[in-house]
Amino acid sequence: MSLHICNWKHGKRWVYSITYDEALIELHRFAVPIHEEYGIPGHLEAVVGHLGKIRQLGASSYNGFRHMSGEEMRDMIARGWGVGNHSWSHEVIKPDMVDREIGEARKVLEEAIGSPITLFCSPGNNVNMADHVLAACRKHGYLGAMSLTDALNRPGDELFWLNRTALHDQFYEPFYSEFDPFRNIRHAQEDGGWIIDYCHCPLEKPVHRNKDCSESQLRRRFETVLSEGNDEVWCAVPEEVMFYHLTRRHTRIETIADTPQEKRYRLRFDGLSERVACRTLTLDADVPAAWCREPKVWVNGDAQPASLVWPRSLRATVDVADGMEIAFHE
């Protein structure tokens, strides 16, 4: 078949996202301005039972900081950020706690920010990625769950165990590895992977060396992502990447016509969740050279611009719907 769905949106080679556990208001001191400067969106992991409250959870290094309120997170969403559920209480989630930690937390957070919540972020460690937790995530309408596993995510991977790279000044014993602004980038470039960084609240110095980076290290990470990635990296919030992943996975291409005069296809959705809010795909088509002089794609009969990415290869990023037709001709 001469029509292909790209692994990542816009045909990018690899993907970069960054998350901030706890959704602390102190992010406005350094992190938010750095995001604004470099144009990279961030993602907040909200502890729902503590929205707008001063943090006082166990022996947390961030006690005394303040969790953002719903209104404050709405402002971040307006800036292009995303929000995930980091549980209700930030405790170990036992089987009898899932309805509150996963279900009620989602509903309360959605009401607070005025947007759907489709992503769960494990608090504490991977104990909260237990089978009963992930089963509850599926039951309550989440589309993915983020762990604390330092690894890449790939186009065919399971979304209910998303890996995150620790963007920290130093790892825990016995490794004590130093901060590396290049961490996993070469790996992502080679494998066509998706990096999700995680930290908490970068300040002049890390609040806790094993849990955070400094503001200067955050800046250096962004500079490295963009300088190494150039036009091959897609910087996006995790939901947008998940939506693309799911739309790609559940789209089937039917060939209607494949002649020297026209190539026409129909897209079909097989079991795509209604909670996938953004349904966009980047499509590559192999076409005769003559059709590349004025690159176009016809979407349900309407012409849209396409781009020439290789001899006899056209690319277009389009909003898709079940049953829509995609066509190429001179």
How would you sum up this structure, described in words?
There is one protein chain. The chain is an alpha/beta fold and 330 residues long. It folds into two domains: 14-238, Glycoside hydrolase/deacetylase (TIM Barrel, Alpha-Beta Barrel), CATH 3.20.20; 250-328, no CATH class. Helix content is 23%, strand content 25%. Helix 3 (98-113) crosses helix 4. 39% of the residues are buried.
Based on secondary structure, the structural category is alpha/beta
Number of domains: 2
Proportion of strand residues: 15-25%
CATH architecture annotation of the largest domain: Alpha-Beta Barrel
CATH topology of the largest domain: TIM Barrel
Helical residue percent band: 10-25%
Radius of gyration: 21 Å
Would you identify the regions where 5 or more consecutive residues have pLDDT less than 50?
Answer: none
Give the N-terminus to C-terminus distance in angstroms.
19 Å
From the spread of the alpha carbons, the general shape counts as globular
The run of helices and strands is EEHEHEHEHEEHEHEHEEEEEEEE
Q: How many alpha or pi helices?
A: 7
Oligomer classification: single chain
- What is the CATH first-level class name of the largest domain? Alpha Beta
How would a textbook summarize the main sheet? 6 strands, parallel
Identify the CATH homologous superfamily of the largest domain.
Answer: Glycoside hydrolase/deacetylase
Mean pLDDT: 97
Strands, count: 17
